[in-house]
Amino acid sequence: MPTSLEKVKRYLNSMRLTYDVYCPKGEIARLVVPYTFTEQNLEYNVIIEQSKDWIKFWAPLLSHNSIADEKMREALYRELLVANGALAEVKYYLTEQGDIGIIGHEGVRSLSVDDFRQEFLAIPHGIDYFLVRIAGKLNLRVSPPSKETLSIYT
């Protein structure tokens, strides 16, 4: 029987999405799917991981050192909270360091290609929402965290 992440690989292949596989201990631990937003000329990495009961979809959006101005940070946090109430399937999060990201979950037991597709595509939709409706409204300059910095999000 295939693992949940093996199923996810099949689902990503059926969606014709490319991805990198990370296997630090010989088992798949993480899939990283680059997702390009052509209008903004930006590429974000959607990370897919599995816990005992959940498939977690997430993407770091903005590094904590990107916003030095306290008033701008407060305005950003307010917009993120409002967006959390407006969006289905995904939520914005804040790490202890102050980095901002987006996250969604799907139950391992209920994992199907249709549910996976819906949950996965909610992440790029949430990233676009962040770029257009939040960063755009606040005139924030954004640049996605690089793949090399993803190791801090384990």
Give a short overview:
It contains three helices and six strands. With 154 residues, it is α+β, with helices and mostly antiparallel strands.
The count of β-strands is: 6
* Rg, Å, rounded: 16 Å
Structural class: alpha+beta
Spatial ordering of strands, largest sheet: 1-2-3-4-6-5
Task: Pick out the low-confidence regions.
Answer: none
Would you tell me the overall average pLDDT?
90
What proportion of the residues is helical, as a percent range? 25-40%
Overall shape: it is: elongated
Pattern of helices and strands: HEEEEHEEH
Report on the biggest sheet.
Answer: 6 strands, antiparallel
How many helices? 3
N-to-C terminal Cα separation, in Å? Answer: 27 Å
Q: What portion of the residues fall into strands of 2 or more residues?
A: 25-35%
